[in-house]
Amino acid sequence: MSSFQIIVGSMLGGTEYVAEACEEELSALGHQVTLHLQPKFDEILSDNQTWLICTSTHGAGEFPDNIKGFVEDLRSNDQKLSSTAFFTIGVGNTDYDTYCKAAKNIDNILKTTCYKNILPLETIDMKQDIDPEEIARSWILKNKDHL
Q1: Which end of the chain is flanked by fewer CB atoms within 10 Å, N or C?
Q2: What is the DSSP string of the chain?
Q3: Which structural domain range is residue 17 located in?
Q4: What is the pTM of this model?
C-alpha cells in the first residue's frame, strides 16, 4: 500500500484528534502512516509519499505556531517534490471570516510548487454540532480508492 505523512497544524489540540482519526483509518486500510505533531520539513519523507496536511487556523488567518516553520521551509524549498502527492483537511468555524484560511493557503502553496493534489480540500466546520473525528474517518473511507 502507500506511505502517508500526516502533517498537523494545531494550537489547542482539536486538530490533532482529527489527524489521529485519519492515522487510524489509513492504517486500518493497510497504509504505512507517520504522524508529525511538530513537523519539520527536512525530517519528513517526501519521495513517493502522500502528505495529508491537517490544520486549523489561528488568529486572523495565520498558521498554528507548530506548523509555521514547516510552511516557511516549504515556501523556500528549491527542490520541487513532484513525486509527492497531497491532500488537505482544514478545521475551523464558519463564524470567522478566516474560516480554514491556513488550510486553504497551504493547499495553494502545495498546488503551485508542483506537488500532486489527489483530493480537493476538505473543511470541517466546528460551528456545527458534529464529531470531527468521525467526519474525517468517513471522508477517508469515501475517498479510499483515490488514496
Answers
A1: N
A2: --EEEEEEE-SSSHHHHHHHHHHHHHHHTT-EEEEESS--GGGS--TT-EEEEEEE-BTTTBPPHHHHHHHHHHHH--S--TT-EEEEEEEE-TTSTTTTHHHHHHHHHHHHTT-EE-S--EEEETTSS--HHHHHHHHHHHTGGG-
A3: 3-146
A4: 0.95
Q: Model confidence over 30-59: pLDDT tens digits?
A: 999 999 999 999 999 888 999 999 999 998
Closest CA to 56 of 22, 24, 104, 95: 104
Instruction: Give pLDDT tens digits for 130-144.
Output: 999 999 999 999 999
pLDDT at 80: 67
What's the structural domain count of the chain?
1
